[in-house]
Amino acid sequence: MKSTRKYALLAAMAFMAALPAWAQNIAVNSRIFRDGNAWVEEITGAATSPGMLRIDTELGNINVQGGPGGAQKDITYTVRKRVYSGSEEAARRDLAKFRVSALRRSDAVVLEGHAEGHSRRMSVEYQVQVPREIQVKISTEGGSIAVRNIAGRVDAESGGGSISLGDVAGPISAETGGGSIEVANSSNLLDLRTGGGSIRITGSKGKVKASTGGGSISLQGASDIVALDTGGGSVKVEQCGSELHVSTGGGSINVGDVSGLARLETGGGSIRLASARGPVTAETGGGSIELYKLMEGAKAETGAGPITAEFLGVKTDSSLQTSVGDVIVYLGPQAKVTIKATLDMANGHQIRSEFPDLKISSEGGNYGPKNYYAQGALNGGGPVLRVRTMSGNIEFRRAK
Fold first, then answer.
1. What is the DSSP secondary structure assignment for residue 239, as one 8-state letter?
2. Closest Cα to residue 199, out of 169, 168, 227?
3. Which of 6, 58, 291, 298 has the least C-beta neighbours within 10 A?
4. How far apart are CA 28 and CA 93, in angstroms?
């Protein structure tokens, strides 16, 4: 019996001795001072980096800066709590209502901030310096997040503040309840979500998936597959080196150069595409569609708007259709295509062509609505291009 108790006591002592190796409090320095009309508590500390930084706070803006490769070895941080209280005694009571703790665990340095009925007049700011070769995971219930110069993975979540990330080589996951998201010079997967703020991306080399409940999306350049979705904002893409998928509930879509497939959908806004080397699908509930320098083909449909399309090459069957609006088609000199066009209930509208091989005919009475048709094979024919409008002109022109 005594032997059993002895072994149990030794096991308990061993377990307690192992705890500091698993989770150790980090020594911190703290001072309180006056700054203008505010009282500030400044908490500083440092720890050897285990390869990951985690920040979990109920309040506060967070700024994490990675050091030059190999130069920064430790994680150093400064947390400033700021309150507007009349006296130092009152300020100390208010500052004590928000507790900041720092722990070093086996896999991460952890900074935590917990409120105990904190004053509404309080603000908190985290400034953290880390080695570049580190992973970062941040969560704040309402503040903004900024992360720069990190080689590892970055996960950032805010209840409603803005998120700004730059020069991150690892995968990125960022989510905010309603603030804006901005990412610059990313080298890996992007997964961005906001409840309603805008999203801006520059210089992405990995796959991009970005969605917002209603804000605008801007993408200056991407090398891999891109998928963008907004509940109602506009979307602008300057360049995409692969496939592009864009969807908006009602905003406009403006796209520059796309190297692969492009699928563009809006509930009612306009669509404009400068060039595409892959097949294109463009759909809008009522806006105009403009598609230029198409190399494979396109399917475009609008409920009530004009369509302009320029085909430099046609490799797949294509179609252009609108209920109300003119359709203008530009064809390159090398485009091999078979055209089938229909103008329903012309009412003064016509089909016009600059190509002699395109035969135009009509049917209907002299006083009632007419239907116009155009058919022909250009450059020996090829994939079929179908064009249709119920109220508008159809024109076939030579691409310049």
1. E
2. 227
3. 6
4. 20
Find the angle CA(157)-CA(159)-CA(164) to the nearest 5 degrees. Answer: 50
Q: How many H helices and E strands in the chain?
A: 2, 37
The per-residue pLDDT for range 352-379, each reduced to its tens digit, is 999 999 999 988 766 666 889 999 999 9
Query: What is the distance between the alpha carbons of residues 71 and 300, in angstroms, rounded to a whole number?
Result: 54
Please tell me the chain's helix, strand, coil percentages from 3-state DSSP, rounded to the nearest 5: 5, 55, 40
- The pTM (predicted TM-score) of the whole model is 0.90
Residue 344: how many other CB atoms lie within 10 Å: 16
- The answer to whether residues 374 and 351 touch, using CB atoms and an 8 Å cutoff, is yes
Q: Tokens standing for 135?
A: 């992973």
Q: From CA 15, how far away is CA 7, in angstroms rounded?
A: 12
Q: Tell me: the pLDDT tens digits for 90-139? A: 999 999 999 999 999 888 999 999 998 756 689 999 999 999 999 999 99
Burial 279-295 (b: 16+ CB within 10 A, else e): bbebbbbbbbbbbbbbb
Q: Three-class SS of residue 95? A: helix
Start-end of H helices in the chain:
2-22, 88-95
Q: Which amino acid is at 294?
A: L
Q: What's the pLDDT score for residue 30?
A: 93
Give how far Cα 370 sits from Cα of 104, 343, 366, 389, Å.
81, 8, 8, 13
What stretch of H or E contains 112?
strand 109-115
Which pLDDT score is estimated for 7? Answer: 41
CA dihedral 387, 388, 394, 395 (to 10 degrees): 0
